[in-house]
Specification:
CATH architecture: Alpha-Beta Complex
Structural class: alpha/beta
Keywords: Cytoplasm, GTP-binding, Magnesium, Metal-binding, Molybdenum cofactor biosynthesis, Nucleotide-binding, Transferase
Shape: globular
Number of helices: 6
Protein name: MobA-like NTP transferase domain-containing protein
Oligomer: single chain
CATH class: Alpha Beta
CATH topology: Spore Coat Polysaccharide Biosynthesis Protein SpsA, Chain A
InterPro entries: MobA-like_NTP_Trfase, Molybde_CF_guanTrfase, Nucleotide-diphossugar_trans
Radius of gyration: 15 Å
Number of strands: 9
Low-confidence stretches: 182-187
Distance between the termini: 40 Å
Number of domains: 1
Helix content: 25-40%
Mean pLDDT: 91
Length: about 190
């Protein structure tokens, strides 16, 4: 199955005091590298955010304005997608695996999104038919991923291993680290 991956990594991480969230380590490597490892078969790895080491084959793009939010970031990233399917992912998913991404891609008609243990859609943990996502973006002028993606009625997947868990706060980061083991010399 041919797909590209679009990883949104340009947020301001306000709840983490502005730290470089995608660069924070969990399980011995930066979060963004964990997400990149979950898409090993992607034709293109598109990262919307600043350039960073550890991703030599990534295509780096920036939203306008930088830090403008997930919808402008998605617009920027989608411009680099050439495959019929795209995995749309946050850069801070410490438990995401290639198996989770594969399940999303297989269910993406027109899209599939992970749901958390409370049944809430996690819009930055999904896969979409590129053409459908492009059409939706062309007619959408809002700022909310929910407003953009929910009307597409994606498949909702609840998968084991908490692949939807993201590290928005220090408590989230500490929880992820406690489940993956300590990281020496961080912070």
């Amino acid at each position: 199955m041919r797909y590209d991956a679009c990883v949104l990594a340009g947020g301001q991480a306000r709840r983490l005091g502005g730290r470089d969230k995608p660069g924070m380590a969990v399980g011995g490597r930066p979060l963004i590298e964990t997400v990149a490892a979950a898409v090993p078969d992607a034709g293109r790895l598109i990262v919307v955010g600043p350039r960073r080491p550890g991703l030599p084959h990534a295509v780096f793009l920036r939203e306008d304005p930088p830090g403008g939010g997930p919808v402008p970031a998605l617009r920027a990233g989608l411009a680099g997608v050439t495959a019929p399917l795209v995995a749309l992912l946050a850069a801070d998913l410490p438990f995401l695996t290639a198996g989770h991404v594969r399940a999303l891609l297989e269910a993406a008609d027109p899209g599939a999104v992970l749901v958390d243990d409370d049944g809430r859609e996690q819009w930055l943990a999904g896969a979409w038919r590129t053409a459908e996502l492009t059409r939706a973006l062309a007619r959408y002028d809002g700022r909310s991923l929910h407003g953009l993606l929910a009307p597409l009625a994606p498949a909702r997947l609840h998968l084991g291993g908490a692949p939807w868990f993201d590290c928005d706060t220090m408590d989230d980061l500490l929880r992820a680290r406690s489940e993956t083991g300590p990281v020496p010399n961080e912070e």
